[in-house]
Design brief:
single chain, 316 residues, alpha/beta, D-Maltodextrin-Binding Protein, domain 2, 2 domains, 5-stranded mixed beta sheet, 3-stranded antiparallel beta sheet, 13 helices, 42% helix, globular, binds trimethylamine oxide
């Protein structure tokens, strides 16, 4: 090979290398395969599914919404049936999440700015029916419990827990462990809407009510107080070997992805990693449905339209 030709060849190789490096870095496109986003049974989660789906679509991705059980979903993500989870609540789902994480195939994709609390509580106007609240010791009083009796409670004070798929027997077990079982009974609501219906009915009837609730939620600004149970410590729950005499943790709100999602949809994965919503933003997503009575899908669209500055930065 002459010197000229050799230089030409080297030049060609260098150019080819630069082009291929460049295209790898810049043009590794996301698969057109739809990104599967799970939907569960509380409002912020479903609205946020549409918010995140809308963000992915704005980046050219296809999206599919998959109704999923909120405990089983972490295994579904791990084995690749679902791509992401955008609301991993520590108290309710930390155990299922960690189990899938430890098995491999699911990645911890970081925390939202918002911290969470999921526990039993009451609308503030109920406090007068049980002097000493929010300290849980107030629940030991017969005079307190009698103000929470309902036709289905067998003469005991009734607490309305959320759907059993969220925490199993966590709350009934806790009530018994704390020695409150003679005065209180725990019933399960069939849906989140049944919890909000109970709030409205109790107010109308002027009777005491204790329900399961959480923050961030649309009730954040509405005067709702969580009961102070004995503090949560690692291992205090029966599922972790403890006696269950503890309240819920000051919890994380995490995101998770299937490990392959990062390879099939690198751009969406990078955007999802940056996504972080605050307590106020998540409460507002829930309020669009539970207060303003929009559909989840319309609520997601409205949130995206009103908050372009917030979410555009996740895509850059
Ligand atoms: C998982 N939840 C927000 C219903 O507590």
């Amino acid at each position: 090979m002459g010197e000229k030709n050799m230089i030409k060849t080297i030049k060609g190789l260098v150019v080819a290398a630069i082009i291929s490096a460049f295209s790898f870095a810049t043009y590794a496109a996301d698969s057109k395969k739809p990104i599967r986003i799970p939907t569960h049974n509380w409002s912020s989660q479903v609205v946020m599914a549409y918010v995140i789906g809308g963000i992915f679509e704005s980046m050219g991705n296809n999206v599919e919404y998959v109704p999923a059980d909120s405990q089983a979903v972490y295994e579904s993500i791990r084995i690749g049936d679902v791509d992401i989870s955008h609301e991993v609540w520590e108290s309710a789902f930390g155990k299922s999440f960690t189990t899938a994480l430890d098995k491999g195939g699911l990645l911890d994709w970081g925390d939202h700015e918002a911290r969470t609390l999921e526990d039993m509580g009451y609308p503030n106007w109920v406090a007068e029916k049980c002097p000493g609240l929010p300290d849980w010791n107030a629940l030991k009083s017969k005079d307190c419990a009698k103000n929470f009796v309902t036709p289905d409670s067998g003469g005991k004070g009734r607490m309305l827990e959320g759907p059993q798929t969220w925490h199993g027997d966590l709350i009934p077990q806790r009530i018994d462990a704390l020695g409150l079982g003679d005065l209180w009974t725990v019933k399960f609501a069939g849906s989140a809407d049944a919890l909000w219906a109970e709030l409205a009915a109790a107010k109308k009837e002027g009777r005491g009510t204790i329900i399961f609730n959480w923050t961030p939620n649309f009730t954040d600004g509405a005067g709702f107080t969580f009961i102070d149970f004995p503090p949560y410590t690692a291992g205090c729950r029966p599922e972790d070997g403890g006696d269950g005499k503890c309240g819920s943790p000051d919890g994380y709100l995490k995101k998770a992805v299937n490990a392959d999602f990062v390879k099939t949809h690198p751009k969406a994965a990078a955007a999802f990693k940056k996504m972080s919503f605050s307590t106020g933003q998540i409460g507002a997503m829930a309020a669009l449905v539970d207060v303003d009575k929009m559909t989840h899908e319309d609520a997601g669209k409205k949130w995206l339209k009103d908050n372009k500055k917030v979410w555009k930065k996740f895509t850059k």
